[in-house]
Design a protein that fits this description.
The protein has twelve helices and 16 strands. By secondary structure, it is of the alpha+beta class. It folds into two domains: 94 residues, OB fold (Dihydrolipoamide Acetyltransferase, E2P), CATH 2.40.50.140; 302 residues, Bira Bifunctional Protein, Domain 2 (BirA Bifunctional Protein, domain 2, 2-Layer Sandwich). The strands form three sheets. It has an eight-stranded mixed sheet with strand order 6-10-11-16-15-14-13-12, with helices on both faces.
């Protein structure tokens, strides 16, 4: 008999079903035993009447079952208005214990006072908290909506290697791994291979995959391994085309999330899912510095001139809400020496790219890429990377269309969407300088 999930129960009322799930709680009363079962979609009450002789074997089985064990039940699903849980209950005919649970190290339904590292040590138990399961479902919906949007726009999904023969992009902050008789490096991003696909004639490409950064950082927003949503597309006129497209992508993702989980997010996380309007506000970095100084007395530290830092990003979101009533804002006009060599440069060396700020945090660095062989070769040489990226430079020797793209950190997006305090609560399994398990 096909397994039935809680979300589909209404169509099975009055019928015999097979239900598998966790034992969430047991209330053993004088005349009846109530067992609350759960699966990933919800909860179901199973009722065993003690007065019925045929139920004695079932009661004996359940007397040995601990909470969080799993069972397989064959029974009849019936309506009962007295049952607060969806107005229905399962009357069992047979019960099979499929796994037995030991005493749990903490109560996942009451995480107050439970150390976060302890929760991460037992992440599979932490997931059993309904709130944490919801995080996974929301993130899946967000990513799925954006992926579907790209497929509808005729993008091709690609899968690039994560083991590289040379250190990628900047030549720093990479993980070195033993690779047979030589060393390899874990990819910081699929950037080079996205552009290889463009040079190969694929006009629009994307990838959702892990990326690795060897940053010894313990901030709330950094991880050594994270999920990156990358895309690249051809035949653009400027980086503004890239910004326009990112607006549409995020609107598509947030619209679906609001439709599916907007009320639940407000109830559980206290956050409003706001679908932004187009166009997003845009401001040059130079003008932003002036605005932040005039409004808040903020002066960018000398070492950060030409770029942004955490405080700048926080104030930028405040400015965007006060001036435009908008949660998103694009920043342009970054210094080329602060960015990767493959970003196109305009007059006076101004970077043809942007950062996108949302809720006080940078979520994207995007740009028009340099596609002209002589120019990108010169940029790489200027950064001292000519030999390291020699294979990459070859992509542009035989013709390559104008193109641009960006990447979104999925874990960071979800953190900001739900107002979570750290990536440790967002990622399926967090990886940082001090955590490689489980």
């Amino acid at each position: 008999m096909k397994k039935v999930y809680v979300k589909d129960l209404k169509q099975w009322v009055g019928k015999e079903i097979c239900f598998s799930g966790f034992v969430d709680s047991i209330r053993d009363k004088k005349w009846v035993m109530f067992v609350i079962l759960r699966d990933s979609t919800g909860f179901l009450q199973m009722t065993i009447e003690k007065s019925e002789e045929k139920n004695q074997e079932l009661l004996e089985i359940m007397s040995e079952v601990s909470v969080d064990s799993t069972i397989l039940v064959h029974g009849t699903l019936v309506e009962n208005e007295a049952v607060k849980l969806n107005g229905m209950e399962l009357i069992p005919h047979s019960i099979q214990v499929t796994s037995h649970a030991d005493t749990l190290p903490f109560d996942y339904n009451n995480l107050d006072g439970v150390n976060l590292d302890t929760r991460l040590d037992f992440r599979w138990l932490d997931f059993r908290c309904e709130r944490n399961l919801l995080v996974r479902k929301i993130e899946s919906t967000f990513v799925g909506a954006m992926r579907n949007f790209l497929l509808e726009q005729d993008f091709t999904e690609i899968h690039t290697p994560k083991l590289l023969g040379t250190a990628s992009e900047s030549g720093s902050e990479v993980f070195e791994v033993k690779y047979f008789d030589r060393f390899a490096y874990l990819a910081q991003s699929p950037q080079f291979y996205k552009q290889m696909a463009i040079a190969g004639g694929l006009s629009k490409v994307f990838e959702v995959a892990p990326a690795f950064r060897a940053e010894n950082s313990n901030t709330y927003r950094h991880a050594t391994e994270f999920t990156s949503f990358d895309l690249e597309f051809s035949y653009i006129d400027s980086y503004e085309d890239v910004m326009d497209f990112e607006e549409d992508l995020l609107i598509a993702g947030l619209t679906k999330v609001k439709e599916m989980y907007g009320e639940k997010i407000k109830e559980v996380f206290g956050q409003e899912v706001i679908v932004p309007s187009k166009p997003f506000p845009r401001i040059s970095l130079e003008n932003l510095y002036q605005e932040l100084h005039n409004r808040y007395g903020y002066v960018i530290p000398s070492e950060d001139i030409g770029d942004m830092n955490n405080e700048t990003e926080t104030l930028t979101s405040r400015y965007a809400m006060e001036e435009f009533g908008h949660e998103f804002i694009f920043i342009t006009g970054f210094s080329a020496n602060k960015r990767a060599f493959y970003h196109m440069r305009g007059e006076e060396g101004v970077l043809q790219g942007y950062d996108l700020i949302w809720r006080g945090t940078e979520i994207t660095t995007g740009a028009q890429r340099e596609h002209r062989y002589e120019e990108i070769q010169k940029n790489a040489q200027e950064k001292g990377l000519s030999e390291d990226v020699k294979f990459y430079l070859e992509f542009f020797r035989y013709g390559c269309p104008p193109h641009g793209g960006f990447a979104l950190g999925i874990d960071r997006l979800t953190m900001l969407l739900l107002g979570l305090p750290s990536l440790k609560e967002t990622q399926f399994l967090f990886r940082g300088p001090n955590r490689l398990e489980p």
